[in-house]
Design goal:
Two copies of one chain form a homodimer. Chain A has 632 residues and is an alpha/beta fold. The first copy, chain A, is 47% helix and 10% strand. Chain A is built from 25 helices and 15 strands. In chain A, helix 16 links the parallel strand 5 and strand 6. In chain A, helix 1 packs parallel to helix 6, helix 4 crosses helix 18 and helix 10 crosses helix 13. The radius of gyration of chain A is 23 Å and the shape is globular. The interface between A and B is large, with 72 and 68 residues.
Chain lengths: 632, 538
């Protein structure tokens, strides 16, 4: 989401540029890089926040060597790190950050605090007068290099990994290919929304957005999103009579995009009162926020908030006379953190927390471990449907999309090596094989390797095929999988791209040497030219291809949003005692329900068990249908 | 083999086999009656299924059956042809000695040893993992001093396992876990090679326990490891020789049933040694279901019907591991595949994989092939069968014969297909034409029993995965330092799962990449694994 912010900003600034996609993507790529770096470094930067460093440090080393780790991690991790990284620092650190911002590119000394600066810097420049700077290659390269160095020292790959989804989310809503929203997002109005007096058509002024007049346009965005989020719409219809959230007072802190708006309005339709803030200072779609404000939701968010604005918005959501929340919907854990810190008494009334991101979930587990968690919390990050969609299905489509958009290449008969056979790798291989490519796989985990063998892929070591392949795709979650040595041996016009980790997998830094010439041939496409004339096509400078060069379907976000809505309903309606003060996984039955809500999209007709059959199997007719350890 | 998600029930080949199966079932439930009339038994078994509350109990059999099938199936192995049973003298009465003069075994006919050796050599070709284990451990003998008493199917594949254990330094005494699955010539070859084997095809219930007893109860030799398949051996030792457990270092159990029993023992606090559950390893489960069925569905259909798949409309009931395998194979051959599913998550997977999810009655009129793999019962009912088009093929890859409502031959209920107005014509082994009064015929395969067990082979490679896992589990338990394993049931450590997989990679000439130190550090992993967290879904 944070990404989205950037790209949107960039788009806004550079409308005149001939290639529409160029500026946004470029900006995005930059952002991606910097965000990644930030994610890694964030905790230290936000030193004021006592919890920030700890979660980062302790996050389990999930990433497997295969794509599995990268993919799995990234989706799960996807959202939080980014968001949290950006937001995490406390207000007091704001000044420091600002200062840093100016120098971000200069000091590649590897200290953690630097990373955030770069992040901030780009967005800021995007929104401010210096927006065009983003386009400058020099700056970009510096940043990249810098980020690479940071990666080298970063010990916690997962931290960065999670970013992929958040990135992808933002992509889906503001990407120049997929949505017009970004173009309308003029940021030339320099007055802070906090200083403006705005009223919606009903006379209410209980909100704070950039420009309430954009409401109509935002409404159109929301309507587009509704088309691809059938599950939430179905939920609205089914619950029209009963209002399962009647009386619920939900305070939320998520990315504010058209998709979230659909979620929010669904919650409203189910009877809840909502107050909402953004979980990322750049990800807000201003026109969507306006549309929400217009329809009566107290929304406090705009694109390009300052650190101070960020916490002010959260506080405005929570701290209201005569209104006290009884549910929390969080993405990254900042809202939860704020309430713990400032209004601990509020938890007496709170029935539960729903947390979506890896970071936030991690923080909750730590709270729980320390015995400080005083309400039930629901981890919606680890549901089967969400994880499969974030990885396997999503990457299966985006690999082709990303390669086509950037290179216009034909896949039939091409030799491709995919590094890593986790969920992401499986998706990539399936798609490429279907297009008639000859696919090789490299793997470190013998189990995944055996799967690759059984699926009909040749398992090789990278250096065995590097001379002959036309495309190299990394999705291991690891670092330096493709080294300079490999790059040296590739054949002319070999395409190199990364579907896994942030920019660590391909050793791009090693290509920044004087004897190699870099030529930017398109947005996200660089030719790196060897002295003998050989060129390599490097995509997105080694950053995540699917975030930089392709879209994330709303359908994927729909899965997440539906899961969140169901988790809220479950927590709110659970009888006393069902949930203790602990972190819970969503019951499998609700996972199944989320899936079932998405089936009508495919016109899929689910078979029902007869009573007799259910008895025979020892199952309830309505599920859950599988034991918990089932692997799907 | 094919029942991934639901509880597998016995998949049976021919009628005779089914009878055996039932005896088996009875044996396992410690009901000593062995009825002679197979047909009655079938019905009986079906009835039992109805009332049994632990379908898994019988379920474990599916694998064992497939194992036996793979070695004795008439298509796949010549062994069964040599298996003349006209010798009516019980092996227990015979005096036999092998060429070294030992008579510490009991097999049908020691003279078949040479033939059995050839069978074993064939199996060795496709069990390279065990062979490489032999080579790797030649120096160190990780099982030196181990005295393993085993009770498994005795087939060429198990023989490779047993001989591997011996090569690793263990002493073995072996009996069969199924009264019909033993390959006599293989048992002879093992006896000839000096392994104390007590097993023959067609044991009686009494013989069965006698053989187990002969394995366990021996002067001057006390077992310190148990390798079991089904839990009978463990049960016998518990019942008759509880003192033996003082010396036992661990139990390795392969079957669902046996594992279930162990968990019950453990719950009751009666388990007094560590036990290893090798049934739930990733590699084994994937091979038993997804990969195996992906191949056997085509094999089974081709052998029985010679059908061509391109453009055929197929409905697959159930999209678990078996269903996924079937669909992938059929789609690859150009068939148009429909899915029925009850679980919305699996249904969504089917959608995303590009299959239409339908209810059976929506497509039943138009499809050419109906395949069931739900683990459920009465998925295809008489009503469906009535509406099928002419020459529709109906078969089952899932549960024992419950999925398709083919009532048994002597059914007193006279339901479904066994009704007077329908004519049955056996056109081939395992292939029946059921003819409606109007002339419509439905092609029913294996009478609704498991297609992949009756009509196709189970590759040795699949069995190799299991056998390797067993061998490693034995090594792990035997060599574990005091205290690593308590008196509980353990899953195989993921690292060993990974090792099993890695041992099978050379068959594919697959070259595994190794992490550099730097990369391993970056990922926070050990260079040698385990590479994934436990909850990873693969």
């Amino acid at each position: 989401m944070s990404v989205q912010v950037v790209s949107a900003a960039a788009a806004a600034k550079v409308p005149e540029v001939e290639l529409k996609d160029l500026s946004p993507s470029e900006a995005e790529s930059q952002l991606g890089l910097s965000t990644a770096a930030v994610g890694a470094m964030a905790p230290p930067a936000g030193g004021g926040d006592p919890e920030a460093p700890a979660p980062a440090a302790e996050r389990p080393p999930v990433p497997g060597p295969g794509s599995g780790p990268a993919a799995a991690l990234s989706p799960a991790a996807g959202k939080v790190p980014q968001a949290s990284a950006m937001k995490r620092s406390d207000p007091h650190h704001q000044h420091q950050r600002h200062r840093d911002g100016g120098e971000a590119l200069v000091s590649p000394d590897g200290t953690v605090t630097e990373a955030p600066r770069t992040v901030k810097k780009f967005p800021r420049s995007g929104t401010g007068a210096t927006g065009n700077r983003i386009q400058k290659p020099e700056a970009q390269y510096h940043t990249i290099q810098f980020a690479d160095q940071k990666q080298e020292f970063n010990k916690r790959p997962t931290k960065i990994g999670r970013r992929s989804l958040s990135r992808s989310i933002s992509q889906s809503s503001t990407d120049s290919y997929s949505s017009a929203a970004s173009y309308t997002d003029s940021s030339d109005d320099e007055t802070s929304p906090r200083d403006k007096q705005q009223k919606n058509s009903k006379g209410s002024s209980d909100f704070c957005v950039k420009n309430i007049k954009q409401a109509e346009f935002g409404r159109r965005e929301i309507e587009i999103a509704e088309q691809e989020m059938p599950a939430l719409m179905a939920l609205r219809k089914r619950a029209q009579g009963e209002k399962p959230l009647a009386g619920a007072k939900i305070v939320g802190c998520t990315h504010i995009t058209a998709q979230t708006a659909v979620l929010m309005e669904t919650l409203g339709a189910l009877g809840a009162q909502c107050r909402w803030a953004a979980c990322n200072i750049y990800s807000t779609l201003n026109e969507v926020a306006a549309a929400l404000a217009e329809s009566g939701f107290p929304v406090f968010a705009w694109k390009g908030e300052s650190e101070d604005d960020f916490w002010w918005c959260i506080d405005r959501c929570v701290n209201v006379e005569g209104w006290q929340p009884n549910m929390i919907l969080d993405d990254g854990g900042d809202l939860t953190h704020w309430i713990y810190k400032k209004y601990p008494n509020m938890f007496k009334k709170i029935k539960g927390i729903v947390e979506e991101s890896v970071t936030g979930v991690h923080r909750l587990y730590q709270l729980s471990k320390a015995g400080k968690l005083c309400v039930p919390a629901m981890n919606v990050n680890d549901s089967v449907t969400k994880q499969k969609f974030d990885n396997l299905y999503c990457c299966r489509e985006s690999i082709l999309d990303g390669l086509k958009r950037t290179t216009d290449m034909m896949f039939g008969g091409k030799q491709v090596v995919v590094c890593g056979y986790g969920e992401v790798g499986k998706g990539c291989c399936a798609a490429l094989k279907a297009m008639g490519s000859i696919v090789y796989v490299t793997e470190i985990d013998p189990i995944c390797a055996l799967q690759a063998c059984m699926d009909g892929f040749r398992l090789v070591k990278l250096n065995e095929v590097i001379r002959q392949v036309d495309i190299v795709i990394t999705c291991t979650g690891n670092k330096n999988v493709v080294t300079r040595e490999h790059l040296d041996r590739m054949k002319n016009s070999c395409i190199v791209c990364n579907m896994g980790h942030s920019n660590t997998e391909i050793d791009v830094a090693s290509l920044r040497t004087p004897e190699l010439t870099w030529e930017r041939v398109r947005s996200q496409v660089d030719h790196v030219i060897w002295p003998d004339g050989k060129r390599i096509v490097l995509l997105a400078e080694g950053r995540l291809l699917n975030l930089s060069c392709s879209t994330v379907p709303t359908f994927v976000l729909s899965i997440t949003a539906t899961t969140q809505a169901l988790a809220l309903i479950e927590l709110y309606n659970a009888p006393e005692g069902r949930y203790k003060q602990d972190v819970y996984l969503l019951p499998k039955k609700m996972d199944e329900y989320v899936a079932s809500l998405h089936l009508p999209t495919f016109d899929a007709h689910l078979t029902e068990l007869t009573d007799e059959q259910a008895k025979y199997l020892g199952l309830n007719k309505n599920g859950p249908f599988k034991p918990n350890y089932y692997r799907y």
